[in-house]
Structure formats: C-alpha cells, structure tokens
Amino acid sequence: MTPPGPVYESELTWLSTRELAARIASGEVSAREALTDHLARIDSVDPAINAIVTRDDERAYERAERADARHARGERLGPLHGVPLTHKESTDTAGLRTTRGSPLLVDNVPARDALIIARLRAAGVVTTGKSNVPEFTAGSHTFNPLFGTTVNPYDTTKSAAGSSGGAAAAIAAGIQASGDGSDMGGSLRTPGSFNNVVGLRPSNGRIPHALPADPWKWLAQPGVLARTVDDVALLMAAVCGPAPGAPLSIQEPGSVFDRPEFAEPGRHEPGSWLAGVRVGFSTDLGGLLPVEPAVAAVVGSAAETLAAAGARVDDVLPVLDDADEVFRVYRALDFAADYREIVRNHRDEVKQAVVWNTELGLALTVDEIVAAEEARVRLLASIEDFFSHHDLLVLTTSQVAPFDASLEYPRQIAGTPMRDYLEWMRAATVISATDCPAISVPAGFTPDGLPVGVQLVAAPGKDVELLLAAQAFEELTGHHSRRPAF
Questions:
Q1: Can you tell me the distance from the alpha carbon of 44 to that of 428, in angstroms, rounded to the nearest whole number?
Q2: 236 lies in which domain range?
Q3: 301 phi and psi, to 5 degrees?
C-alpha cells in the first residue's frame, strides 16, 4: 500500500531534530512553518501507516504562535524550541486524551503530564498529537480495537512492532525526526529494529519514575527514538536528570548527553570511538534464542564492522539463565498492579493477553516472588562480572524481521514454536531483566528489504558510553540513511 495521491515532502521533511531546532532558533524557519510542514506530512503519509491516532492541530498552532512570539521578544529558548512532536499514546499528556488503545479509556484526559512529556514541553516542543500503541501496551505489535493497526513504512503489509510502534513508524516515514516512548520488554528497541530507527531503553533512574506515579518501578523505562543517535542524545539531554519524588533518580543532569561528539560527528574519524572497546558478541545468546537466518546474517555482519574498527570482539557472554524468570515475574506483578481492577470489572472487554498477564501476577505466591528477587540478585552479579572485563554486549534486537501485520505475533521462529505472546521477544526481554541500558541501531536489511537492528548493551549507568558506541557503529555503516519508498 502506498499513500493516496501525491506524497508531501519539503526541505524540512528529513532534517534531524537538531537541524530543525537550529533553523527555528536562527529565525530561518518559524515554529508555525515547521508545524504546518509536520501536519502536511501526516496528512500525506499517515493514511498508509496509521501511526498518528490523535491530532491536536488547533492548540498546536496556538503553541507555535506563542513560541514565535517568544522568539520575537528575544527570550531565552529551549533546545527543542518550536519543534513539533507527537507523543506515545499511552503516556499521560495534560489536556490531551490518553486511551492506551482501549475503548474503556476513550474519554480519559489526564490532568497532568508524565515527567518525560513535561520535560519535552519545557524544552520547547510543540505537542501535536499522539502515536499508536497496542492495547494497554501489551505485546510488541501495534494494534488495538480503538485505532486499528500501525504498519511498517518499509512494507505496509508488515508490523511496525510495539509498543512504541506508532512513534517508530512516524519517525521512519518522515513525520518527525525523533520522539518519546517507553520500553518494558523491547518496546523501544523492537520498533527501532523493525523501522530502521534508533531506540534507546535507558538505565533505571536516568528518566526517573516520579510521584504521583510509582517511583519504585524499574522494569518499564521511559525513553526515546530517533533516526540518528545524535537526536537520541539531544532528547536525552532534555528529559534526563533527577526529580523530586523519584528516589531512584540517577543524580547526573541531562547535560551529560550534551557532548560535541554527538552534535559534530564529523570532527573525528568515523568509528574511532570503538578502537580498543571490549565486546561480547552473539546473534543467539549462545544458543539461548532461535533467530531467523536472514536476521542472524545481518546481525552477524555487525561483528565484522566492530572488529574492523578496532574493537576487541569475543563470544564471551554473561550468564542469563535467571533472566526469563525475573522478567516474567516482575512483568506479571506490574500488570497486576496496573490492570487488576480493569480485568476484574471488564474482563470481556480487554485484550486476552492483558487478562492472561494480569492474572499471572494475581496468582503469584510469596515463594515465587521471593525466588524471583533471589534470581534478580544472581543476574546482577552475572552482569557485574561480565562488565568487569567487557565494555559492551552486542546482540540481536529482534529474532525476526517485520512479520505479517495481520498476525497477533509470530507463532514460530526458525522452526521453534512460541508458547505465548512474550516468547518471540526474548532477545529484548532477557536484557530488560538485567536493568542495563540498551539501544537498537540500524544494522542492515534482509534480502526482502526489511530493516534489522543490532542491540548494544552497556553496564547500568553507562548510557553516555553506550550512545558513543552506537553512534560510532552508525557512522561506519550508514544504514539509518536508507528511507522508505514514500
């Protein structure tokens, strides 16, 4: 499927967020002009992909006009001043509906912004709407009964993944250059892989969970996506830093991401940051995961790229035997905490996967929860040991390439049946359980032209170093520059 009629494209369409923000700050482009361009691109290409599900055009123009007035008065501008952006549908936006893809929440309008949204707006973003998600963000394929299915700009018969699938598809399609999302079991990384964009799951506390939300949550993390690592760093600089009511905050300010290496990649030899970096590499986690051969071939080439840049690549891996138990138990607990009343009162009106995962959490025994806590301690010890002699872990992001969008999830991978809707995401979920920052970076394409990402993982707290490595890989390969056909 291609967009109906002529496709709208301008000189602004494929600018990075940093480039667009610079043009607005210089007065070369007004915030109103940037917004008009953004909305025209949505009108042109979104009918083919269904990424943007809520529009806020009238108030967006009011925001843009206020931004231009501040510019005219010579006021101090934020780093994202005037940049138009849609936000993930499941993330609270004050005054703009947040349905989580469920008809039960069709009229839900939050009174306040989630922290990541508040910080983006404080940095100058002009909010324009919301991007699609799976129902209650359950699963890594974006479809729901309220808004339908988001499809992949590289092949509109295929999945855009999820749960940040609407955001990733919008970025890949030239609607915006970057955006916010969240990741529990790969919800930033898998859409990154499927849509040939960059998806970062940060360390816990980098973008804090703050009151009135549960400040002790750790499995699900807010994060960002973009077409380039540079733009990921730009947004991270705006949204990171400690917050009141967030006791697990990392105390470093967001400015740690404001480094010249990101803004000026041409100032050094491409890939030079990788020289001497110690890398543990595997396409299948030492046989732990089934992986489609076409995906394994693309990810396997990443090892050659890293080695050619001077990285010290070996096949040593952390022991991840406890990761499945940790992820599944803590995910079930989070689902029980978030959705138990909805499932109890509206069981027949909720996606079966949500019911199943919530009831798993409600059925957990004290012994099972304590065992998962003990497993998490062992897993942390394994990660500590691995990163005492390695700088990076480099892996497959998704075990499959983008699959048929009419499916709920892949029922088998490389001949191995998937027991449930979580099983096919294990390349991402086992890393979520480690609490490490992880990023998916474009790694190439299958023979059918479908995007494949490679997953880079660093020690907890090493988000900046992770982005430096990811940018070095991006510079060497250039896969991010391959755009969809429209």
A1: 33
A2: 17-481
A3: -65, -20
Among residues 166, 199, 196, 128, the alpha carbon closest in space to that of 46 is found at 166
**DSSP E strand stretches across 227-381:** 278-281, 312-314
C-beta atoms surrounding 260 within 10 Å: 9
393 strand-pairing partners? 280, 457
Angle between helical axes of 31-49 and 165-172 (0-180°, round to 10): 110
The pLDDT tens digits of the residues spanning 231-245 come to: 999 999 999 999 999
Domain count, the chain: 1
Q: Is the pLDDT of residue 50 over 90?
A: yes
DSSP-derived secondary structure letter, 235:
H
pLDDT over 70 at 1, yes or no: no
Cross-strand partners of 440:
199, 455
Domain-embedded: residue 53: yes
In a domain, 3, yes or no: no
Outline where DSSP puts E strands in 184-270. 198-201, 221-226
The whole-angstrom separation of Cα 479 and Cα 402 is 17
Q: Do the domain assignments include residue 2?
A: no
Dist CA 351 CA 335 (whole Å): 13
Q: Which two tokens stand for residue 44?
A: 């042109």
Listed in sequence order, the residues at least 6 apart from 287 whose beta carbon sits closer than 8 Å to its beta carbon are none
Write the CATH number for 149: 3.90.1300.10
Which residues are known to be catalytic? 88, 163, 187
pLDDT(82) > 60: yes
Q: For residue 224, what are the β-bridge partners?
A: 180, 200
Distances (CA, A) of 22 to 29, 253, 312, 419, 465: 9, 22, 38, 49, 25
Q: Is residue 410 part of a domain?
A: yes
